[in-house]
Amino acid sequence: MTDTSILTATLTAQLAAALDARAALMQRLANEQTDALRLFHGSVEGHPGLTVDRYGDLLLAQCFHSPLDAEALTALESFYATRLPDLAFVWNDRSQANSRIGNPLSQAQLEAAMLPREMHELGVTYRIQGRHAGQDPWLFLDLRAARRRVMQEVPGKSLLNLFAYTGGVGIAAAKAGARFVVNVDFADTAIKVGKENARLNELPVRPRFIKSDAFAAMRQYAGIGQPERVRGKPMPPFPKLEKLAFDMVFLDPPRYAKSPFGVVDLVKDYASVFKPALLCTAPGGTLICTNNVADVDRELWFEQLQRTAAKAGRPIQSMEWIVPEEDFPSSDGQPPLKIALLRV
Fold first, then answer.
1. Among 181, 197, 206, 246, which lies 20 to 30 A Cα-Cα from 24?
2. For residues 191 and 186, what is the distance between their CA atoms, to the nearest angstrom?
C-alpha cells in the first residue's frame, strides 16, 4: 500500500469514527426538526483544517490548511455517498489566503453548488447554498447552542441582533415568539438572505432588518448618538434611529473589521464593541456575546467584560457559558468559540 493509500484509509477511518460518534446526536436533532450539523471536525478528529457539514440535502466539505489530494477527496465523497446517500456533495478548497475558495468546479458541479436549498434547525427553515458570492456558509453551525438558548429566553421580549449576517439568531427569535426583533448588518447580500429566511418561515412577528454599521446603530440605540461629522470629516450615510433599550442583545462580531465608525478587534479591544452593546441592553436584560478567536483565553476575556461593564456603570449580575454542542468537540474543554450569557 502506498503512502497516499495509507493516508486515504486513515481519513476514511476518521470520518467513520466521527459519524458513528454522532449517531445519538443525529437522532436527537432529527427529533427537533434539525437536519444540519457538523459531521467531521478535523481539528479535533484527526485531520486539522478539514470540516464536513450537512445542511439539509447539502454535504459541504471544506479544507482550510491544505487541499486534499484527488484520491483523498474521492474517498471522502465515496464514504458519505455510502453512509449518507442522496446528499449533494460540494467541495470548497479554502486553503488560500484569507480563506478564499480556490478550486474550480465543473459546470454541473457549480450548478449544484449554486442551487438555493433549504435546511432546518430547531423547527426553523433557513436558506443555504454550497457556493455564493461570499465565502462563509449562510449559517454558522457552531452557534446552534446560542440560537437554542435565545429561543428559550426570548418569548415576549425584544431582541437586537448585532452583526446579524443572514439573521439566523433573529429569525430563530421571531419563530420562538419574540415581541420585537431587529437585525443589524452592513452587507446588502447578507440582509437579502436574511429577508428570504424570514419569508421561508411562518413567524408571529416580522423581524426588522437595518442596513447599518453596527457602531452607528448601537450608539443611537444607546442614546449616545452618532455625529454626522467626526473631526471635521463627514461620515458615510447611516440610518437615523431613536434611543431604544432591548430586553436581549446578541453580539456576534467578526475577528477584525474597520470602518469610519469604529474598529472591531476581538483580540486587542473587545471593549470598544462590547460597551455600546451593553448600553443598548435594558436594565435587568440579557446580553449574549461571542468571541471566535481561539487564542483568546476564556477567563481573561470574561474579566475584560466585567471591567468594561463596571466602568460603564452597568455591572454584570451573573454569567453563564454557552458551549457549542457535541458536533463541535473540543480536546481540552476550551472550544475556540466562546459564548457568554450575561445578566446585566
1. 197
2. 8
Report residue 91 as a C-alpha cell. Answer: 467541495
Contacts 24+ apart (CB under 8 A), 2-10: 4/69, 4/71, 4/72, 5/71, 7/72, 8/71, 8/72, 8/75, 10/46
Q: Which domains does the chain have, with CATH numbers?
A: 3-117 (3.30.750.80), 141-343 (3.40.50.150)
> HEC string of 44-71?
HHCCCCEEEEEECCEEEEEECCCCCCHH
Instruction: Provide the β-strand partners of residue 95.
Output: none
The number of residues making up the chain comes to 344
Other Cβ atoms less than 10 A from the Cβ of 137: the count is 22
Residue 323 carries which DSSP code?
A: P
pLDDT reading at 111 higher than 90: yes
| CA nearest neighbour of 152 among 128, 129, 172, 123 | 172
- What is the CB-side half-sphere exposure of residue 95 using CA atoms within 13 A? 14
Backbone dihedral region for residue 295 (phi beyond 0: left; psi -120 to 50: alpha; all else: beta): alpha
Residues 167/161, Cβ–Cβ less than 8 Å: yes
322 φ/ψ angles, rounded to the nearest 5 degrees: -105, 120
* Residue 154 reports pLDDT greater than 80: yes
Whether 27 shows a pLDDT value over 70: the answer reads yes
Contact 309, 278 (CB under 8 A): yes
Alpha helices (H) in the chain, listed in sequence order: 3-21, 23-31, 42-45, 70-83, 107-114, 144-153, 168-176, 188-200, 214-221, 271-279, 298-311
Q: Which three cell numbers stand for residue 21?
A: 460518534
Q: Are strands 256-259 and 246-251 parallel, antiparallel or unpaired?
A: unpaired
User: Residues 117, 129: contact at Cβ < 8 Å?
Assistant: yes
Residue showing cell 470629516: 233
- pLDDT tens digits, one per residue of 212-236: 999 999 999 999 999 999 988 999 9
Question: How far is residue 47's CA from residue 113's CA, in Å, rounded to a whole number?
Answer: 24
List residues bridging with 182 in a β-sheet.
Answer: 160, 208
Chain segment 112-123, per-residue pLDDT in tens? 999 999 999 999
